[in-house]
Design brief:
The protein is of the alpha+beta class. The protein has 4 domains: 192 residues, no CATH class; 105 residues, no CATH class; 70 residues; 291 residues, Peptidase S8/S53 domain (Rossmann fold), CATH 3.40.50. 22% of the residues lie in helices and 26% in strands. It contains 13 helices and 32 strands. Strand 20 and strand 21 form a beta hairpin. Helix 1 runs antiparallel to helix 2 and helix 7 packs parallel to helix 8. The longest helix has 19 residues.
Length: 744
C-alpha cells in the first residue's frame, strides 16, 4: 500500500465531559418456560434427597451441584435466583453449554441446610414469579470430575484442580480433606497458584491407579489432567539447504523490539540467529535440549520475509529474540512453563510480546476455561504483556480437515488446544501460503479451530503456516522456510508446517506495533489494533471465522499510516458502571465524503477492545463485563446505531447473546447510496454479569479503533477529519512515535 508516513493514525483521549449518567430499565423475569408438573418436582426432590444421603457426611460439609437451565432461559433476566440464593444453594459459577442440547450448566454451592431449604422451596413454591424461575430449571445433579482413568498416564504426575465454592471456611476445609487424602498414599504436592485451587501432585506408578480411583467420583475435585502434557512433536524431514541466503542483519542505527520465545532452546551460535539473539533463560539441562523447534520460530521472528523468497505476504517486521527454554525432550507441564515465563518477564520487563508456539496434546475443554489459559490470563493482566499462542495442530491424520470443512461443527480432535483459549492472549491459526490440498489462503488441514468454552471467537488471527499435497497415497508437507539444525548439528534452512510457525509471524508484527506506540500502551489497544488491521485486510465470511479468526493482520506501516482518503482514529477511555455512558456527540464527518444532499458515502470499520474482569469459576460466563460501542444517530434522545456488530460465526452465540461478551468486537458498514449523519454519536456502554459485585474504584479501560474510508479516490478524509477534531477541541495526538522509523 502507498502510505504517506506524514499521515499517522491519530489517538484521541475521552475527556471527563464525555461521560454522563444514564437511567437503567430493568427487564422482567416472569417468563414461563414449561409447566411445572408433580413428576418434575418429585424428580428434583428425589435427586436432592439422594445427594444428601450419599455425598454429605461428617467430613464433607459442602460441594458443588449442577443446575441445568432450559435453552431459552440463559439470559440474565431469567436466571432463577429466587430459587437458588443464599437462603438455599447460591450460584457459584458455570460449566458451559451442552452444544447439542443447548442447555446451560451452572454450579451451585450445596450444603445440607441449603439443600433442605431448596427441597422445601421446590415442594411449596406456587406464586407466579418463583414458578417461572423454577420452570427455567431442566435438571439438578451432583458435579463430578469428567475423566477416564485409562486415558491418564500411569506416571503418577498430575495437575489437579479443586472445586471452588467461593466460601473461605468451606473451601479451606475441603482443601484439607484433599491434602489428607494425598497423605494416605504418600503423594507429594505443590500448590501452583495462590488464587486458583490448583495442585501439582506426584506419586509413584504403583500408587497412581489408587490415587485416580479415589478421585474419580470425588465431589471435591473439579478436574485432573496429565502434568507433562506439552511436548515437542517431530518436525517433518523436508530439508532445503540454502547456503548463500541473503539473511538480513540488524541495522546499527535502528531500534528493534524483542520477542520472548517460550519454546525449546534456540541455537544461539547459528550465524543466522546470533545477530538477532538478545538473551536466554532456561532450566533445561544440556542433554535434554532440543534446538530444532525454537530455532525455527526465532528465524521467522527475525527474518520471515527474506527467508520466504521476499514474499510480501510475509511480514516485513523484524524483531530480536529472547529465549525462554521450557520444552525439553521429555515434555513440560504448565506450572514449569509459567514459572520460567514469570522469571523471564521479571528479568526482562521491556519485553511485551511472548511467543508461545506450544499447546497441550488435547483440545481445550468445552466445560471450562483450561487451567493454563486462566493462569496465562493472570500473567498477562499482571504485567501488561501479550501472549501470542498457537491454535495447535491436528496430530491424528484421520482427523485432518479439508476445505471447506465436511462437518458443520469441528470434532474434538480439531478444536483449539490449551492455552489457546486464553481470553487476554491472541490465538493464531494457520493458512496455506501456496496451493496444495487446500488453495493458498485457505485454512491449513492441520490447523485447529474454535469454539472454546465461553464462545469468545478463537482463533483471533491467522497467518501462513504451510500446506500439504498428495503424492500417490501419501501426504507430503509444503512448508514455509526458516532456520533449523540438520543431522550434522549445522545451521541450515528448512521447510516445515504448523501453527507453531504461523504464530511467530503475528508475534513480530505485534512487537513492532507496540515498539512504535510505546511500552506504556495498554495491551488491549495492541490486541484491538491487530484484529482491526486483519478486518481491514479481509472480509472473512461469518461461518468461517472459527477457522481464520479475523484473518491475517497487516504489517504496521500498512495501517498505522493513512492514505489521504481515509483516517484511523484510536480512542482510549474508561467506564465505571452500568449507569455510565461514554461518548462523542456530535461526531463529525469530513465534508469531502458528503453528497449534495448532505449524506456521506463511506465505509466504516470499528473495533472495540478491553480487558474484562474474569472469573475462573465460570466457563460460559468467564468474562464478567461486556462493553459495547455504537456509532449512529440520535432521534428524540434515543440512540440508533448504524454500524452493526459482526458475529463470531458460532451458531451458539445466539444463546444469551454470548458473542457480545467477547472483549474484542468488530463493527462494519458501507454506505454506497449515502446516509444522513446529522446528530451522529459515538457511544460506549457497559453491562455486568448477574451476581458480579464490582469492587471499589472499579473501572474498565477500553479502546475504540475507527477507520473511516472514502469509496472514491480524491476525498481529503484525513486532513478534514484532523481539522474537525481540533475544532471540537478533542485531545488529539499521533498514535505512533514518528521518530521510531520502521523500514518501508
Amino acid at each position: 500500500m502507498n502510505k504517506n508516513n506524514q499521515r499517522p493514525a491519530k489517538k484521541v483521549l475521552f475527556s471527563p465531559e464525555d461521560t454522563r449518567l444514564i437511567e437503567l430499565h430493568g427487564g422482567g423475569g416472569s417468563k414461563k418456560f414449561k409447566n411445572i408438573t408433580n413428576e418434575f418436582r418429585n424428580h428434583l426432590i428425589s435427586t436432592i434427597e439422594d445427594t444428601i444421603t450419599t455425598l454429605l457426611n461428617d467430613e464433607i460439609e459442602a460441594f458443588a451441584m449442577i443446575v441445568e437451565l432450559e435453552p431459552d432461559s440463559l439470559a440474565k433476566s431469567h436466571r432463577p435466583t429466587s430459587i437458588f440464593n443464599e437462603n438455599t444453594c447460591p450460584f457459584i459459577g458455570d460449566i458451559g453449554i451442552d452444544t447439542e442440547e443447548r442447555v446451560g450448566r451452572f454450579l451451585i454451592k450445596a450444603t445440607k441446610h441449603g439443600l433442605l431449604e431448596l427441597r422445601q422451596k421446590i415442594e411449596t413454591v406456587s406464586s407466579k414469579n418463583p414458578l417461572a424461575a423454577l420452570s427455567a430449571v431442566k435438571d439438578i445433579k451432583p458435579y463430578f470430575p469428567e475423566f477416564e482413568i485409562d486415558k491418564l498416564s500411569s506416571t503418577g504426575d498430575y495437575i489437579i484442580r479443586l472445586v471452588y465454592l467461593n466460601d473461605v471456611i468451606l473451601d479451606k476445609k475441603n482443601e484439607q480433606i484433599f491434602l489428607n487424602l494425598l497423605q494416605t498414599i504418600d503423594a507429594s504436592f505443590t500448590r501452583i497458584d495462590k488464587k486458583l485451587p490448583l495442585y501439582r501432585v506426584k506419586t509413584n506408578q504403583q500408587k497412581s491407579v489408587s490415587l485416580l480411583e479415589k478421585l474419580v467420583n470425588n465431589p471435591l475435585i473439579f478436574s485432573i489432567q496429565n502434568a507433562k502434557s506439552f511436548h515437542i512433536h517431530p518436525m517433518s524431514s523436508t530439508f532445503t539447504e540454502i547456503k548463500d541466503i541473503d539473511f538480513l542483519l540488524p541495522e546499527e542505527d535502528k531500534s528493534y523490539p524483542v520477542v520472548g520465545v517460550v519454546d525449546s532452546s534456540i541455537k544461539t551460535n547459528c550465524p543466522y540467529i546470533k545477530p538477532w539473539f538478545d538473551g536466554e533463560i532456561t532450566a533445561i539441562i544440556e542433554d535434554e535440549k532440543n534446538y530444532f523447534h525454537g530455532t525455527f520460530v526465532a528465524g521467522l521472528i527475525s527474518n520471515a520475509q527474506n527467508l520466504n523468497n521476499f514474499d510480501n505476504d510475509f511480514p516485513d517486521s523484524q524483531s530480536k529474540v529472547f529465549s525462554v527454554g521450557v520444552l525439553d525432550s521429555n515434555g513440560s507441564s504448565m506450572d514449569e512453563i509459567l514459572l520460567m515465563l514469570e522469571r523471564a518477564q521479571i528479568e526482562r520487563p521491556d519485553i511485551k510480546i511472548w511467543n508461545l508456539s506450544l499447546g497441550s496434546d488435547e483440545a481445550a475443554p468445552m466445560n471450562r476455561i483450561s487451567n493454563f489459559a486462566i493462569l496465562l490470563d493472570e500473567f498477562q493482566h499482571k504485567y501488561n504483556s501479550l501472549c501470542i499462542i498457537s491454535a495447535g495442530n491436528i496430530e491424528d491424520i484421520n482427523h485432518l480437515r479439508q476445505w471447506p470443512p465436511a462437518t458443520e461443527f469441528p470434532t474434538n480432535e480439531q478444536r483449539i488446544s490449551s492455552p489457546g483459549d486464553s481470553v487476554l492472549g491472541l490465538t493464531v491459526a494457520s493458512v496455506a501460503h501456496i496451493d496444495g490440498i487446500v488453495h493458498a489462503g485457505e485454512p491449513s488441514i492441520f490447523s485447529r479451530s474454535g469454539p472454546i468454552a465461553n464462545l469468545v471467537l478463537k482463533p483471533d488471527l491467522s497467518h501462513y503456516g504451510g500446506n500439504h499435497r498428495f503424492i500417490n497415497s501419501d501426504i507430503e508437507p509444503l512448508g514455509i522456510s526458516s532456520v533449523s539444525i540438520n543431522e550434522k548439528n549445522q545451521c541450515t534452512i528448512k521447510q516445515d508446517c504448523g501453527t507453531s510457525f504461523s504464530t511467530p509471524l503475528v508475534s513480530t508484527i505485534a512487537a513492532n506495533l507496540w515498539h512504535t506506540m510505546g511500552n506504556d500502551t495498554p495491551r488491549h489497544t495492541i490486541k484491538g489494533l491487530l484484529l482491526h488491521s486483519a478486518r481491514l485486510r479481509h472480509d472473512i465470511p461469518k461461518e468461517h471465522r472459527l477457522y481464520y479468526g479475523w484473518g491475517i493482520p497487516l504489517d504496521v506501516n500498512d495501517y498505522m499510516y493513512c492514505n489521504e482518503n481515509e483516517i484511523t482514529i484510536i480512542l482510549e477511555g474508561e467506564i465505571r458502571s452500568n449507569t455510565e455512558e461514554v461518548g462523542k456527540l456530535p461526531f463529525p464527518m469530513p465534508e469531502s465524503l458528503k453528497t449534495d444532499d448532505g449524506k456521506i458515502k463511506a465505509e466504516i470499520f470499528m473495533t472495540i477492545s478491553y480487558d474484562s474482569p474474569l472469573d475462573s469459576n465460570r466457563a460460559l460466563e468467564y468474562c464478567l463485563v461486556n462493553i459495547d460501542a455504537g456509532l449512529g444517530k440520535v432521534d428524540n434522545g434515543k440512540f440508533n446505531g448504524q454500524v452493526p456488530a459482526e458475529g463470531s460465526g458460532f451458531e451458539q452465540e445466539l444463546i444469551n447473546g454470548s458473542y457480545k461478551w467477547s472483549p474484542v468486537k468488530t463493527y462494519h458498514a458501507k454506505f454506497p447510496r449515502g446516509i444522513n449523519v446529522e446528530n451522529w454519536k459515538l457511544r460506549v456502554k457497559m453491562l455486568t454479569r448477574e451476581g458480579y459485585s464490582q469492587p471499589d474504584n472499579f473501572k474498565v479501560p477500553f479502546t475504540i479503533i475507527l477507520t473511516i474510508r472514502a469509496l472514491e479516490e480524491g476525498a481529503q478524509v484525513y486532513n478534514e477529519m484532523v481539522q474537525l477534531m481540533n475544532q471540537y477541541n478533542w485531545q488529539v495526538e499521533n498514535a505512533i512515535n514518528i521518530d521510531t522509523r520502521i523500514r518501508l
